[in-house]
Amino acid sequence: MSDRTLRVLLAAQVAPPSPLIGARRVAALAKHLSAEGLEVAVLTSSISGEGEIVGTTRAIRTFDLMASPLNWRRAQFRALEGSSGGSYSRPSRLQSVLVPDIAAATWLPFAIPSLLRLSRRTPFNCVITTGPPHSVHLMGLALQRRGASWIAEFRDGWTFEQPTRVFPWKLQRRLDAWLESSIAAKADAVVGVTEPIAEDLRTRFGRPATVLTNGFDPDELTSERHVDILDPKRFSIVHTGRLAYSGRSPKPLFDALRLLRRERPEVVTQVELVFAGPLTSEEQALFDAEDLRGLVRAVGTLDWREALALQRAADGLLVITDGMTRPATGKLFEYLAADAPILVLGEQTEAARIVGETAAGFAASATDPPLIATALELLVSSSVRGRDQSAVEAYSYPNIARSYARLIRDVVGARS
């Protein structure tokens, strides 16, 4: 491939300034792919907000019914992303009606015409479609037919390990499976953000799949530490982000605290669990339990810089998973850049593997309160600070973008 500048379009429904973790990935890739010498544009939805995106030549924000008055759940979305107060609810029931997802009806009818007009004015060498929502990959198919190389990125499994994503009718399930297999087969390259997702793509569809994980941005790390939120007299274990939206529950953890309070009160008096992020009404009821007063605090939604500072001020950091193999959420990589030991609830998960690989902490059961209680006690007594910095550095976005740029040049070169 020649050294001429390659024009890359990154298509994602959520992008900056949205605080959702998918938007943070778009922000980091746009900035650091640009630093690798690529010309990057972003096509996104109006639901993400307005403004420029650092590192891009332009950000195209198309209309989305989710951002219009026709969406009676707009307040729920704002609560989910943390841009307004109050609790949020689980995904709409329309998720079990529209194949493959709601965005196919709310965003794609407006995004694809904009995409085609844009490509006529500024032909792109490569388009990266990043889902969920998985309907975004239909944009890659549209640009591929116009000669662009196409990388389909899976930040989560489509049908892989998605027990809550169930369509009631056989015809829906067949259409969903056909779409997934078609996208996997036709993309010039497929990317999974975790090894289990990539391995599933290799196994079921026979495609080489590249792992390009989420990461942390060294430019965002500061010396600021959010000590005013935490009790300096206690061992503060911090969790940032959402739980219920991904099917995770703090209930086993809270039951472990109750067990410690009965059997090891001298440990419990040293500990506080601090959760930063939006809650559902059901989660709020769990947090309000009388027997957890003084042990668990929800401090509400912080902006991402405040969340990073809180992570850096923590004595311990907590990852709660649904116990399946795929989870390695974006906040895990932010945790890696902090100093505190990490406890992953979910021993067989990708998050547990990464924490073990980097010597950044340890893992325990996601569902067994006695085992979680033992892990909490170990965390409090632990003075682990010896993480493998070279292994951690592999998960920085400059390194991830360098690998991504090589993949982009390879697929463009192969098509040329």
Offer a concise description of the structure.
The chain is an alpha/beta fold and 416 residues long.
What would your notes on this structure say?
The protein has 416 residues and is α/β, with parallel strands linked by helices. It has two domains: 7-215 and 396-415, Rossmann fold, CATH 3.40.50; 219-388, Glycogen Phosphorylase B (Rossmann fold), CATH 3.40.50. 39% of the residues lie in helices and 16% in strands. It is built from 16 helices and 13 strands. The chain has helices spanning 21-35, 74-81, 103-106, 108-121, 137-144, 170-186, 195-205, 251-263, 265-268, 281-287, 304-313, 330-336, 350-357, 369-381, 389-393, 397-415; strands at 7-11, 39-45, 56-62, 126-131, 149-154, 189-192, 209-211, 235-240, 271-276, 296-298, 316-320, 342-345, 361-364. The strands form two sheets. A seven-stranded parallel beta sheet has the order 3-2-1-4-5-6-7, with helices on both faces. A six-stranded parallel beta sheet has the order 10-9-8-11-12-13, sandwiched between helices. Helix 13 links the parallel strand 12 and strand 13 (361-364). The protein is globular.
Helix content: 25-40%
- Class of secondary structure makeup: alpha/beta
Q: Radius of gyration in whole Å, from Cα?
A: 21 Å
| Architecture (CATH level 2) name of the largest domain | 3-Layer(aba) Sandwich
Q: Indicate the CATH topology of the largest domain.
A: Rossmann fold
Question: Based on DSSP secondary structure assignment, what is the total number of beta strands?
Answer: 13
Q: What is the CATH top level name of the largest domain?
A: Alpha Beta
The number of helical segments is: 16
Biggest sheet record: 7 strands, parallel
- Uncertain segments are none
Fourth CATH level, the homologous superfamily of the largest domain: Glycogen Phosphorylase B
First-last Cα distance: 8 Å
**What is the overall silhouette?**
globular
Could you give the order of the helices and strands?
EHEEHHHEHEHEHEEHHEHEHEHEHEHHH
Enumerate the strands of the largest sheet in spatial order, edge to edge or round the barrel: 3-2-1-4-5-6-7
- The chain-level mean pLDDT equals 89
When the domains are counted, the total is 2
Report the β-strand fraction as a percent range: 15-25%
